[in-house]
Amino acid sequence: MRFLRAIGRAALRFLAAAGRLAIFTFVSLSYCVRPPIYVSQILRQFVEIGYYSLPVVGLTTLFTGMVLTVQTADGFGDFSDENAVATIVVLSVTRELAPVLAGLMVAGRIGASMAAEIGTMRVTEQIDALTTLATNPYRYLIVPRLIAGTAMLPLLVVVGNIIGIFGGFLIAVYELGYNGHQFIARSWDALETIGVVSGLVKAAVFGFLIALMGCYHGYHSKGGAQGVGMATTNSVVSASILILSFNYIITGLFFAA
Amino acid sequence: MSAAQSDIMTETPKISLQNLHKRFGPVEVLKGLSLDIAKGESVVVIGGSGTGKSVMLKCLLGLMEPDEGKIFVDGEETTHLRGAARTDLLAHFGMLFQGGALFDSLSVWQNVAFQGLQRHTLTRAQARDLAVRKLADVGLKPEVADMMPVELSGGMEKRVALARAIATDPDIILFDEPTTGLDPIMGDVIDRLIVKCTKELGATTLSITHDMASARTIADRIAMLYDGKLIWQGEASSIDDCGNPFVDQFVNGRAEGPIQMPVQAG
Fold it and tell me: I need a labelling partner for B149 at 20 to 30 A (CA). Which of A216, B164, B234, B249 fits?
């Protein structure tokens, strides 16, 4: 009996959390399309999410492209040449690696800082203060972050694509002694619209999910420093899991026959 | 009875809380709280920790909704107002939070003039002027305007928060434990500032505190909240000989008496 009760309680708690998240998402989205919009807050988040994440995303994709080239060349053994390696690098980076790795890195950087900032504002009554100063906290805090997350991650992935393929190029030419001209020509041929577009759609969805998790966990955090710490952890873990699962779903939508 | 007197008698209260009930899970925090506050009056609600003082303020502001009961401001019911109507109502309110609740990403002057800046009723230059003027009202120099909240001491932080609460010249100002965390002297300074600023504005105020010195300085009328209800209210000067054993115990801070603090055994 006690066992059943424990299962029931866990199930109810899960449903309650899912419901809370659904309401939070719905309310936030409804404020995204109704003025007033705080433009200065959105621009601030553009800089915070877009500009300051460039080094992290750039380094991640650079090393990924480099490693991928070494591994592909080794894996193909005698069959490896400019054409094979360039094709694999371009397809992998644009379709999967740049969006997913950029997403995970930004989840760690931005999702955590959003949860910590909004969570601290919650426990120090700053969110209540916003309300009493006749400013809707959803409009002022949540909407700018959701818009900036959704808009900035695709741009970061564009940069990540270029740097990732460039990393592959560096290794191919200077490490493996391939013909650089041939590598670039083959890379250009291998670029296909659906691969790039699917990568950017993924990025936009990931950016939304990262901001949503950061805001949701921060907004609902309670109980001082420990609560904020928990909100930060939860936001990163849940955003990462959502990124990986939505990656599968979106890949299925684009590529499953 | 003269005409003037009957006017006062029949005047609608500025704030009226009627039979508020609020429950959190199994715990009923408010059990039928009723309180009327006349225009321009300063009422202080005293009571121990966890008696529902903060919940009362949050219900009035609309940060929480009471399960039962009604709230009137200027004779209009505001209990379940939401959205734009709630925002318009809150523009008439000022609130001083216990920890100050200053926005730490904004400078002091942007905090003080926050409402004017966000609602675009002021230009940046006007907002800054307003902030400097309000900072002067609470005894702070213009240099403070460009500081960030983390650079302020506890007393300065309370002053800036007070400046923000009075920045829009609100009709109603709420104070949540205005002296908590301050030394007794700074506490008295803040209390006197509160009295000065609210009298200048002619504002109606509702404060909650468990600091009796603060309550005596600020209040025209004191009410005591115990077990979810107001068990006594009267003139601030009459609190020492009110004859109510609960109030007496609280005012004198005695562990022995009708109020039993839940202390865990062992």
Answer: A216
Instruction: State how far residue A38 is from chain B, nearest Cα, in angstroms.
Output: 8
Q: Which domain holds residue A8?
A: 1-34
Q: How far is B206 from chain A (nearest CA, A)?
A: 15
Examine the domain organization and report whether A28 and A124 are in the same domain: no
Interface membership of A136 toward B (CB under 8 Å): yes
Mutate to test the interface with B, among A43, A126, A133, A219 (most CBs of B within 10 A): A133
* Burial (CB count within 10 angstroms: exposed 0-12, middle 13-18, buried 19+), residue B173: buried
Q: Does the distance separating the beta carbons of A125 and B90 come in below 8 Å?
A: no
Question: What ipTM goes with this model?
Answer: 0.84
Quick one: which of B104, B92, B115 has its CA closest to B164? B115
8-state DSSP, B179: T
**Spatial separation of the C-alpha atoms in residues A232 and A213, rounded to whole Å:** 9
Which among B222, B190, B237 has a CA at the least distance from the CA of B42? B222
Do both A202 and A229 map to the same domain? yes
Q: What are the pLDDT digits (tens) for B202-221?
A: 889 999 988 888 888 888 89
Mean pLDDT of residues grouped by 10 in chain A (257 residues)? 88 90 90 85 92 94 93 82 85 92 94 93 91 89 94 95 92 85 87 89 95 94 87 93 94 84
Q: Considering only residues 172 to 201 of chain B, which have any Cβ-Cβ distance to chain A shorter than 8 Å?
A: none
Domains of chain B are 40-54+84-219+232-252 (3.40.50.300)
pLDDT band at residue B265 under the 50/70/90 scheme: very low
Query: From the list A125, A130, A134, which residue is nearest B119 (CB)?
Result: A134
Q: How far is A55 from chain B (nearest CA, A)?
A: 24
Which single residue is written with the structure tokens 């877009």?
A: A50
